[in-house]
Design brief:
alpha/beta; 6-stranded parallel sheet; 15 helices; 33% helix
Length: 405
């Protein structure tokens, strides 16, 4: 177990989640629910299961990317295209609190497993659907990926230096922020509503729509009598001014400067012994010249030298770390930021940790990422099926054989 003490109380303990998702957005959402106490049953097809099982270096029989997204889950391999498979899922829905699905809109309805179908079985069910463009509208059945959702939202066009082309994000912003984290919020809202009304809800998570909160600052520039339409690199936080920018150091590394408030900028100028820069912070006429002057200054010393200078300056100036450096940084080794281990096989594994502390406590790793169908028998027995029923469904191809990784 990694995380809190064995007797800690996790906030979602007692909730049962049925996870019908694959790839990134849904599995990350349900893993976080599991990290904070929910029981998560990952429902996979009987042949290959989640495609991420084959992505990245193989550790303990499964791909490293799959392992990043599927701890604290049990795997049930079932063919939902079969009548018995659907009946089996409906049986599990009777006692479930949450169901999360990530199919293209309309798929679950065609299987007879849509929200209206399952709400009739369990009126308290919180049913979350994650898709690119939402359950309704002209794009509901349109295929897409993270880059398409950020493009459609307007976010991608703003992600560039002034006069430059859009820069492809290094991480899946729409999948995670618009999908995984928005889904968690929606599920929590629906659970709170259930506490008051006694009834569940259908939560429609469109990853493109989920990016709206990320555009609040940019959208504010479009308000007023004479809107100043946002342009690439034209904003306070997108590189237009010297006080909020990235600077290359003498050794080819980078420093991040976020001295946006005047008192931080003044402290920065004092620290680097350039008091003449203080009054020029938001000078629109000579802003590019100031950026060049600051860049020339940073190019005079190595990143380590600048780190040492700003260690106690309180001027919002920090090094740009590689992922390896970040995972070893003192800040990121506290409170379960990162989880690392050296396997007996010699494989090193670095996993993202827990995003929240609740009463100073992080989440817990109670279960390792499962093999395909590893918990099929255990889950079905707890649902009331006997050995004969289970063996018959395995022979018929309704269930996949247990494959412990």
């Amino acid at each position: 177990m990694v995380g809190n003490s064995p007797d800690s109380c996790l906030p979602l303990e007692g909730l049962l989640v049925l996870d019908l998702t694959r790839l990134l957005p849904g599995p990350l959402c349900t893993m976080i629910l599991g990290d904070y106490g929910a029981e998560v049953i990952k429902i996979e097809d009987t042949v290959t299961g989640d495609p991420t099982r084959f992505v990245g270096p193989v550790i303990d029989g499964s791909g490293a990317f799959f392992r990043q997204l599927n701890r604290n889950k049990k795997s049930l391999a079932v063919n939902l295209k079969s009548e018995k498979g659907r009946a089996l899922l409906i049986k599990l829905v009777e006692k479930a609190d949450i169901l999360v699905e990530g199919f293209r809109p309309g798929v679950m309805e065609r299987l007879g497993l849509g929200y209206s179908d399952l709400a009739g079985v369990n009126p308290r069910l919180v049913y979350a659907s994650i898709s690119g463009y939402g359950q309704k509208g002209p794009y509901r059945e349109r295929a897409g990926h993270d880059i398409n959702y950020t493009a459609i939202s307007g976010l991608l066009d703003l992600s560039a230096a002034e006069g430059g082309a859009p820069v492809m994000p290094a991480v899946q912003i729409a999948d995670i922020a618009g999908g995984s984290l928005t889904a968690i919020n929606g599920i929590m809202f629906a659970l709170y509503r259930r506490e008051k009304s006694g009834r569940g809800s259908h939560v429609d998570i469109a990853m493109t729509r989920g990016l709206l909160p990320w555009l609040t600052y940019a959208a504010s520039a479009m308000s007023g009598a004479k809107p100043d339409l946002p342009r690439r690199g034209s904003g306070y936080i997108t590189g237009a001014y010297a006080c909020y920018n990235l600077y290359k150091t003498a050794d080819g590394a980078y420093m991040s400067l976020g001295a946006l408030e005047p008192h931080f900028w003044q402290r920065f100028c004092e620290t680097v012994d350039r008091p003449q820069w203080t009054a020029r912070q938001f000078d629109t006429v000579l802003r590019l010249e100031l950026i060049e002057e600051v860049q020339n200054m940073f190019a005079e010393k190595s990143r380590a030298e600048w780190e040492k200078l700003f260690a106690k300056a309180d001027a919002c100036c920090e090094p740009v770390l590689s992922l390896q450096e970040a995972s070893e940084h003192p800040v990121c080794r506290e409170g379960g930021y990162w989880l690392g281990s050296d396997k007996a096989s010699g494989d090193q594994e670095l996993m993202t940790g827990f995003p929240l502390l609740i009463n100073s406590a992080a989440g817990e790793v109670r279960l390792s990422p499962p093999g395909l169908g590893e918990h099929t028998v255990e889950i079905l027995k707890s649902a009331g099926f006997n050995d004969q029923d289970i063996e018959e469904m395995i022979r018929e191809g309704v269930l996949g054989k247990s494959n412990k990784a």
